[in-house]
Design goal:
By secondary structure, this protein is of the alpha+beta class. The protein has eight helices and eleven strands.
Length: 274
């Protein structure tokens, strides 16, 4: 496992456990999950029906300002997998997320990350656990087949996405209670430059799109109560341009030893002893 260190603190987890509970890498057999309100499934992007793609675009415009269809289609075409959340009775699309595998070389060594693209859940279904459970099982299944450590690389213009990190992961960066280790920063910058080229600012760790599409009001507004959470307060300070659509770049290792108790429950992993 790659040790990430800044000379004072080392980001180095226990040896990654295998994930037999998650199953074989799901690329050949995308999983599905049904709750009382939502049916979730992972599909390959090239298998998306045109009607589903239109439904995804419709959800995007409900939640983001200034979204452009051409950019949406271009971004979607880069992805390998799509997580779909549908009404089990009507089949109507209620949410989605997209996943892309990216690979960089740092110091001559390969580094792999799974990048989360647009992620939306319709407001009436906020709080449903189908998306994080299905997404994590799928991505951890893919990561377990990688010959090198694998990471989750995500960008966030809203605190709700950033808040997934402390809920599900023990170690992630950037964060409010410790500095980002230098090697973690190298990984963030490598993935940021590879994915976003000149729109990624390594000094701030933020992606500023030339044509931003900020969240609509009411989707992830920051209230005094929300800002009392140190994770949310840190997100707001680290990404002061979030209201105009700036995205904070974040990274965590996809390793079972890096998963919180809540994350282990979502993955169906047994509790860690000791």
């Amino acid at each position: 496992m790659l040790g990430l260190t800044d000379g004072r603190r080392t980001w180095k987890l226990r040896r990654c456990e295998t994930l037999p509970e998650v199953g074989e890498p799901p690329a050949l057999d995308p999983p599905s999950l049904v709750s009382s309100r939502l049916e979730g499934r992972v599909v390959r992007r090239h298998d998306l029906p045109s009607g589903t793609r239109r439904g995804m675009w419709g959800l995007l415009t409900q939640h983001f300002v200034n979204a452009e269809r051409q950019r949406f289609d271009r971004d979607l075409d880069e992805k390998e997998w799509v997580v779909l959340l549908e009404d089990p009775d009507s089949g109507r699309l209620r949410g989605f997320s997209t996943i892309q595998r990216i690979e960089a070389r740092i110091g001559g060594r390969p580094a792999v990350a799974y990048y989360s693209g647009d992620t939306i859940v319709q407001q009436g279904f906020w709080g449903e656990r189908v998306l994080p459970i299905l997404w994590s099982r799928h991505v951890f299944g893919l990561a377990s087949a990688e010959p090198t450590p694998a990471y989750w690389f995500l960008i966030s213009s809203g605190y709700k996405t950033y808040r997934f990190l402390p809920v599900f992961f023990r170690e992630f960066y950037p964060r409010w209670d410790r500095p980002t280790p230098s090697e973690a920063k190298r990984l963030l910058d490598a993935f940021g430059r590879l994915k976003f080229s000149g729109e990624y600012d390594p000094a701030r760790g933020v992606v500023s799109f030339a044509e931003p599409a900020p969240l609509r009001r009411g989707v992830a507004d920051l209230t005094a109560g929300r800002l009392a959470d140190p994770h949310v307060a840190f997100f707001a300070a680290a990404n002061p341009g979030h209201e105009r659509g700036d995205e904070l770049a974040c990274l965590t290792e996809l390793c079972a030893a890096n998963v919180t108790p809540a994350g282990r429950r979502a993955l169906g992993l047994p509790r860690l002893r000791g």
